[in-house]
Amino acid sequence: MSPPNQGFKYKASLTAAASDGTGVLVAACGSSRGGGIQLSGAWTGTVQFEQSIDNGLTWIAKTVYPAAGGTGAVSATAGGQWKFACGGETHVRVRCSAFTSGPVVVDATFTAGLDEAVVAGGASGGAYTSTVDLTRTSDTNAYTGNDVVGAATGSTAALTFAGIGPAAGGSVFVTTARFEVDVSAVPSGMTSFRLYLYNATPPSALGDNAAWDLPSGDRAAFLGYVDLGAPVDLGATLYVETLQINKQVVVPFGGALYGYLVTNGGYTPASGTVFKLVLHSVGI
Predict the structure, then answer these.
(1) 127-283 maps to which CATH number?
(2) How far apart are alpha carbons 156 and 154 in whole angstroms?
(3) pLDDT for 232-260, tens place per residue?
(4) Which CATH number fits domain 8-111: 3.90.170.10, 2.60.120.260, 1.10.510.10, 1.10.10.10?
(5) Exposed, middle or buried, 247 (CB in 10 Å: 0-12/13-18/19+)?
């Protein structure tokens, strides 16, 4: 049974680190469009904000925004008030990933309306551009086909495409991808690349040179992929652009998408090679 749209409240006291349904606040969104979360009490720890689109079976990070204004966050280490939008998720969860003392008193309220201050600049129908500069690891370890290209080995190589959609979330068409590699010649074995897209940072946290996979924990966030093509030699730079992609995706609240850059061909890279990825989209 869905909760009422306006003023529905949840409350919990968190007293330990938890990753399951014990000692956490789990709130059903119902048909609400937004809400607020307050953390209070004398406590020391780290609180995670999370969301589920499958009735609590799978959880991913949720971006919330300080009520007084400021940058979005997915976690907190101090009390305060945050606002959020509901845009397709079935549940919101607040839990401690680390707990020293407390309790952490959590109050959540769901509303029928959506605070315009939270979603400023997020009108649908606009055009969006996001640029990611990636400097790969300082080594020359060879890639095989289907390897992730990233800035760190053994930790997440996921890329963040900030502002690629409306801040309130919504559907966009990814229309164009521009891909640059800052080397002066095509390395032997380099062919094309693929960009796998997600609506949250992939939990798999694959690092540079890891074989790309779609494990069960990544499925809820996975949005498919864009083929980037094979960069061609333009003298001091390799470059390729893909036009008329017209891939429809739903951008989550906050306006960002996430991705893994994956090489389709095996080759030996130069140390610290710089890659640049530019995505263009239009809101629907």
Answers:
(1) 2.60.120
(2) 7
(3) 999 999 999 999 999 999 898 778 999 99
(4) 2.60.120.260
(5) middle
Query: Given CA atoms 115, 121, 123, 124 in this order, what sign does their dihedral have?
Result: negative
CB neighbour class for 118 (10 Å; exposed up to 12, middle 13-18, buried from 19): buried
DSSP 8-state code for residue 220: G
pLDDT at 103: 93
Which residues, listed in sequence order, are joined to residue 257 by a DSSP beta bridge?
161
**CA atoms within 13 A of residue 75's CA, in its CB half-sphere:** 11
According to DSSP H, which parts of 80-180 are helical?
A: none
DSSP-derived 3-state class of residue 70: coil
Cα–Cα–Cα angle for 19, 200, 174, nearest 5°?
Answer: 165
Q: What rounded mean pLDDT belongs to the chain?
A: 88
Each domain of the chain, given as residue ranges in start order, spans 8-111, 127-283
Cβ distance 260 to 204 under 8 Å?
A: no
The CA distance from 195 to 257, in Å, is: 11
pLDDT, tens digit (0-9, with 9 covering 90-100), for 114-153: 555 454 433 445 789 999 999 999 999 999 999 999 998 8
Mean pLDDT of 54-82: 86
Please determine whether the domains at 8-111 and 127-283 fall in the same fold group of CATH: yes
What's the average model confidence in pLDDT over 192-203? Answer: 96
pTM of the model: 0.61
